[in-house]
Amino acid sequence: MIEFLEYPNGVPVYWRNETSGKLEGAVNRLFLGTLENGDLALLKTYISHWLYCPSFTIPNKDSLLQQLETANNASEILKVSRELLRQGFDPF
Q1: What's the total number of domains in the chain?
Q2: C-alpha separations of 59 from 2, 35, 40, 52, 65 in Å
Q3: Does residue 92 sit within a domain?
Q4: Mean pLDDT of 74-83
Q5: Which end of the chain lies in a sparser environment, N or C, as judged by fewer CB atoms within 10 Å?
């Protein structure tokens, strides 16, 4: 599992800068549609890191966290990330 304990410079850690080496593969598989065991948990942790960023004001954060919590596939993860992008936040 990956952990994000801090927000360097007040912003989330971007997936390419995450240091466990696990997230990059999960992100690539997300867009290829080939998620493996454990990828959903990694991606949920990563997107929640963006949602909880203290310097971001996300009006529907609670709703997005609920959607993220119940997401069971790539399509549902991408739905949350598209909503973040619509609001100006690009986790991917």
Answers
A1: 1
A2: 26, 29, 24, 12, 12
A3: no
A4: 96
A5: N
Q: Which two structure tokens, joined as six digits, stand for 34?
A: 């080939």
Cα pseudo-dihedral 18, 38, 73, 50, rounded to 10: -30
Specify whether the CB–CB gap between 91 and 84 falls below 8 A: yes
Q: Structural domain of residue 18, as residue ranges?
A: 10-86
Q: Is residue 73 part of a domain?
A: yes
The answer to the question of residue 71 being in a domain is yes
Residue 3 within a domain: no
pLDDT tens profile 2-30? 666 678 788 888 898 888 888 999 999 99
Closest Cα to residue 91, out of 36, 38, 26, 34? 26
- The token pair that represents 72 in the structure block: 């069971």
What pLDDT was estimated at residue 66? 97
Separation of alpha carbons 51 and 71, rounded Å: 15
